[in-house]
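Q: I'm writing a short methods note and want an example of a predicted protein-small molecule complex. Could you take the sequence and the SMILES for S-adenosylmethionine and return the bound structure as tokens? Please keep the output block clean; save any remarks for afterwards.
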Amino acid sequence: MSGHKSVLLEETIGLLPSREGTYVDLTLGRAGHSLAILEKAKGSRLIAFDLDEEALRESRERLLENGYQNFDLIHANFAEAPSILMEMGIDGVDGIIADLGVSSPQFDEGERGFSYRYDGPLDMRMDTSSPLTAEKVVNEYEEAALSRLIYLYGEEREARSIAHSIVKHRPLKTTFDLVEAIKEGKSKKSLLKKGHPAKQTFQAIRIEVNGELDSLETMLKEMPSFLREGGVMAVISFHSLEDRLVKDAFKSLSVIEGSRIDGPLPEEAPYRLLTKKPILPSEEEMIANPRAKSAKLRAIERK
Ligand SMILES: C[S@@+](CC[C@H](N)C(=O)[O-])C[C@H]1O[C@@H](n2cnc3c(N)ncnc32)[C@H](O)[C@@H]1O
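A: Understood, no commentary inside the block.
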């Protein structure tokens, strides 16, 4: 089985209740966090989502091999989790986790097109049945739209010249074609900097292909209301755009703004922020798993 080292595993599970109940894993991956939840809250029911059918298949095996049967694995975007849970008749859960982004097996299979390190097709879809691929984005979007998304989703300062170079090199066929076009669009100075020159642009295109930020916003708006009293929602993000959405959503649920000193006592916010500052991986974890380097964990608890 292709491996995935779960990030901030103990820290995340440590925040969740240990009572038997219903737990939702919004990003099943290879079931690392899911298994740890079931080990901690023994006898619990797990409901887990993933866009990637391979992840669902492998995790099903893994859960069964470990002796668990009380689970539902669902092939869906986590933005749809609220309506799916309602349809299942679930109106309260004890814990919710989301470990965002792409898993190591997705990155490490050149065929999936996520990585600038392997030559592969321009795909980047987590859900291989969805219509929008990286190939369509790089070959069909107008230059201005491409430049805007590279700037916004990649936080890439040289977005304009990169978009220009991509358009000039059309049609692009493989990830290495894209890497070359990106390099040509970057200044000499920035090519000398640490880190891969295509990292930000690949991130941007991946976010666009999978509609990642829209799904995250919807999920953050709707999932917390499923928490029962004492239930916890924990989210691990991997870049600043994700983290900002998580931070703002959790803050608005746990802080009542704008109460005046001479006004009536403010209503109590229904959630407690468990992480005033995000929890970061330890040095050891970052050394053992470079993917963990940018991870940030935030959590809220239903009062
Ligand atoms: C970082 S991995 C999760 C790893 C998992 N926690 C583990 O320990 O094995 C993220 C997973 O979430 C899935 N994913 C990302 N965005 C999603 C979304 N909007 N809806 C459903 N699944 C999503 C990806 O396909 C990937 O398998």
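A: Remarks, as requested: Residues 240-254 form the longest helix (15 residues). Strands lie at 22-25, 45-50, 71-75, 93-99, 227-237, 271-273, 296-302.
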